[in-house]
Amino acid sequence: MKKSIGPKTLIYPNPVLLVGSYDEQNVPNLMAVSWGSICCSDPPCVAVSIRKARYTYNNIINRKAFSVCIPSEKHVNVADYCGIYSGKQENKFAKNNLTEVKSNVVDAPYADEFPVVLHCKLREVNDLGVHTQFIGEIVDVTVDEEILNEKGIPDIEKVLPIIYDYGTKTYYGIGQKLIDSFSNIKRWEEEMQNFVFHNPTKLIFGENTIELIGKEISKSGIKKVLLLYGGGSIKKNGVYDTVVKSLKENKIEFVEHSGVVPNPVLSHANEGINLCKRYSLEAILAVGGGSVIDEAKSIAAGYYLNNLWDAFERKAEIKDALPIFTVLTISGTGSEMNPFAVLTNEFEKKKWNIGAACLFPKATIIDPRVQMSLPWHQTVNGGIDAISHILEYYFNSTVQEVSISVSEALINTIISCLDKLQINQNDYPARANLAWAATLALNGFVGASTLGEWSAHRIEHGISAVYPEIAHGAGLAVVFPAWISYTRHTNPSQYERFAKNVWNCSSLDEALNEMKSKYSSWGAPVSLRDLNIPKEKIGEIAFNASRLGVVGNLLPLAEKEMADILELAY
Fold first, then answer.
1. Which residues lie below 8 Å from residue 417, measured CB to CB, with a gap of 6+?
2. Residue closest to 483 by CA, chosen among 412, 396, 409, 415
3. Pairing relationship of beta strands 65-70 and 17-22 according to DSSP bridges
4. Kind plus residue range of the DSSP H or E element containing 343
5. Which of 216, 310, 329, 395 could disulfide-pair with 363, CB 3.0 to 4.6 Å?
6. Partners of 120 in the β-ladder
7. What is the pLDDT of residues 405-423, one digit of tens each?
8. Secondary structure of 424-460 as H, E, C letters
9. Are 297 and 264 in contact (CB under 8 A)?
């Protein structure tokens, strides 16, 4: 049974921090602050709260800088003294025999005796009440070499920082070690999480397999289908003729619905629904890439709904759908073997998604050879889209060794295949491996036993909803490196692993540069500037991306955070 004791400034533990500053006569001062802590990781920032009456207040206002010194247990009396006496009356450095050192990066002093010093430039001032919060961007951190461990990181058992209990007005040292952080993640990796993996889609893969599509549809007893495709490329590469011949040989009637665009739109899907109802069609045959398949799923679901967009608005549940068959001509989205679809409401500039078990295609045919005729940018966009699908699972907090190892192998395979195809677009083994890797990226296998993020995808949907001419993969090429940089603090070891095992780099910064360099070498954009998106559009895109609410499990993102990521992507 808890008892209320009213609003009090109680939080445990509270660090003992000494703030260094210069006055107008360049006299150094140290103040023990009651309230201080790290408040941001990128850029690294520390917040300290000081009353306006304190001597240090004007020092920081005038100099636009300060230091934060972390004293050891042996300095506890010095720390207490600095909290009792004012710099107006005492030179605290001289009084405590401290060695004054002027920072070489900001206009502030520190005491050489303290093992850890944060050198800060003033970034923001917030009036909160009786206290003013100063936010300092950490320009540098200097430490005594003897407190570093073998990894070059300060060892808390050598630093021996002081903590303060404001309830009892008592100083304490650190207690015993309890557990390592992320120990629960390690346990989950070892034990695995419960999951069910079931993919009902039949995949027919290889050369000259498209001619089997009619037979596969006929096996389901279906006699009339909607033949859905895009701008007509399938008529140039021979796929259309092969599909039509197979349908006719198996006595399957069809009604054509062409004109699916990249980032498929609601109005065209509604036209497809009307055709299905008018001609009593029994199934949908999607021939094309992810956009065609996504629209096929939308039509299949909308056939049984009063209003298709209600499902995207989460106002209607998808309980049934027309059977879906696909012939894949562009690899990347994974839509050929999963139950998800994305559609753009071009009237409201919303690009949202649906998902339901009944939207798994019944059968999918992939003949990698037909993808040899693709424009290079479509091959690249598909490959980057597939990499992005994998990364949405890779960085999640509930990482599993099997999923992570498979993910690394798939990403490395996609990179290798794109490099080979850039030299020779008719390299069949490279085409085949790229196609299979892209399917595995989002058919449920990689994501089994872990949670997905999907925040980078949400941000990209915000981009292509406002700029529908931008391909999904191109948008992801811009967003994902920025998202990685923004979230890097959430699970550092996983990000370090990504740098090493995917990009063969010793640091994440180096890996991100390598990632963007590789994307750029393939001809993909790596910034909003490359997409010709003006900076002033960031707010609109972030608002658009956030309209469905907060997204992300590793790091939940709302409109502001999305805007921050887009700023990094600029």
1. 383, 430, 431, 433, 434, 437
2. 396
3. antiparallel
4. strand 340-345
5. 216
6. 66, 138
7. 999 999 999 999 999 999 9
8. CCCCHHHHHHHHHHHHHHCCCCCCCCCCCCCHHHHHH
9. no
| Burial of 39 per CB tally in 10 Å (0-12, 13-18, 19+) | middle
In the sheet where 35-41 sits, what is the strand order?
28-33, 17-22, 65-70, 116-127, 131-143, 44-51, 35-41
Residue 427 · residue 418 · CB < 8 Å: no
Residue 299: per-residue pLDDT: 98
For 326-352, how does the pLDDT look when each residue is reduced to its tens digit (9 = 90+)?
A: 999 999 999 999 999 999 999 999 999
Instruction: Show the tokens assigned to 165.
Output: 């209990």
pLDDT at 151 over 80: no
What single-letter amino acid sits at 495? Y
Question: Long-range contacts for 155-161 (Cβ within 8 Å, ≥24 apart)?
Answer: 158/115, 159/70, 159/72, 159/115, 159/116, 160/72, 160/73, 160/74, 161/15, 161/16, 161/70, 161/71, 161/72, 161/73, 161/116
Residue 152: band (very low, low, confident or very high) from pLDDT cuts 50, 70, 90: confident
Using CA atoms, how far residue 106 sits from 102, 240, 313, 408, in Å, is 8, 68, 52, 42
Pairing state between β 202-205 and 363-366: parallel
Nearest to 300 by CA among 276, 317, 334, 333: 276
pLDDT band at 4; cut points 50, 70, 90: confident
Question: Per-residue b/e over 517-537, b at no fewer than 16 CB within 10 Å?
Answer: ebbeebebbbbbeebebeeeb
* 538 class by beta-carbon count within 10 Å (0-12 exposed, 13-18 middle, 19+ buried): buried
* For residue 193, pLDDT beyond 70: no
pLDDT for the residue 398: 52
Q: Name all domains of the chain by residue range, CATH numbers in brackets.
A: 14-172 (2.30.110.10), 202-369 (3.40.50.1970), 376-569 (1.20.1090.10)
Which tokens is 425 given? 């677009």
3-state secondary structure of 285: strand
pLDDT at res. 389: 96
Q: Given the DSSP bridges, would you call strands 253-257 and 224-228 parallel, antiparallel or unpaired?
A: parallel
For residue 369, CA distances in Å to 129, 237, 510 come to 69, 10, 36
Q: Are 346 and 467 in contact (CB under 8 A)?
A: no
Q: Can you tell me the distance from the alpha carbon of 395 to that of 399, in angstroms, rounded to the nearest whole number?
A: 7
pTM over 0.85? The answer is no
487 half-sphere exposure, CB direction, 13 A CA radius: 27
Amino acid sitting at position 479: V
Do 132 and 126 meet the contact criterion of CB atoms below 8 Å apart? Answer: yes
